[in-house]
Every structure is written in structure tokens, then in C-alpha cells.
Inverse folding.
């Protein structure tokens, strides 16, 4: 739980490493209940902001894993949410 809170705080402040780690925790259900929507959101935010490289590949893998757990409608809603976050520049709400 402490790790989850630390990642959450850093992710809320825009740290892509924390966003990827948080996405992985949510998709795997480690230290928190599995939550595909949160996993997708955090991974996609990081993926969209990161330059090509290993961290972006990790974000993409977490996004793909989360997407496999979601319906097409859930994916569409999650993607719309991510897009609105990126356009507005705001930080995600929990």
C-alpha cells in the first residue's frame, strides 16, 4: 500500500516512471485490486508523453494488458478520458 501511495503521488505530479509503475500495479492487481480502467489510463498517459525507448515500451505493454481486460465501450471511454486529460493538461483524478 505504501508503494501504491508513493507511485500515486508521483504519477499525479506527471512522473512517467511512476505512471508506468502504477499502471502495472493496477493491471496485475499487486497491492491494490485489479483495475483495468486505471491501468489503461495511467499507462496510456505515460505512453503518449514518453519518447521512444524502454519506458515507453513498458507503458505500451501495460496498456495492451489492460485493454485485453476491457470491453470495446470501456476502451472507447478510457481513451476519451485520456485524450481529454492530455488536451486540458490537467492531472488525473483518482
Amino acid at each position: 500500500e505504501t508503494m501504491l501511495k508513493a507511485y500515486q503521488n508521483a504519477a499525479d505530479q506527471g512522473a512517467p516512471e511512476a505512471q508506468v509503475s502504477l499502471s502495472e500495479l493496477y493491471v496485475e492487481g499487486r497491492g491494490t485490486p485489479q483495475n483495468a480502467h486505471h491501468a489503461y489510463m495511467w499507462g496510456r498517459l505515460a505512453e503518449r508523453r514518453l519518447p521512444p525507448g524502454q519506458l515507453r515500451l513498458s507503458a505500451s505493454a501495460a496498456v495492451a494488458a489492460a485493454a485485453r481486460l476491457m470491453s470495446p465501450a470501456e476502451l472507447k471511454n478510457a481513451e476519451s478520458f485520456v485524450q481529454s486529460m492530455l488536451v486540458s493538461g490537467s492531472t488525473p483524478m483518482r
Observations:
- The mean pLDDT is 91.
- The CA atoms of residues 24 and 75 lie 17 Å apart.
- The two ends are 15 Å apart (CA to CA).
- Residues 72-88 form the longest helix (17 residues).
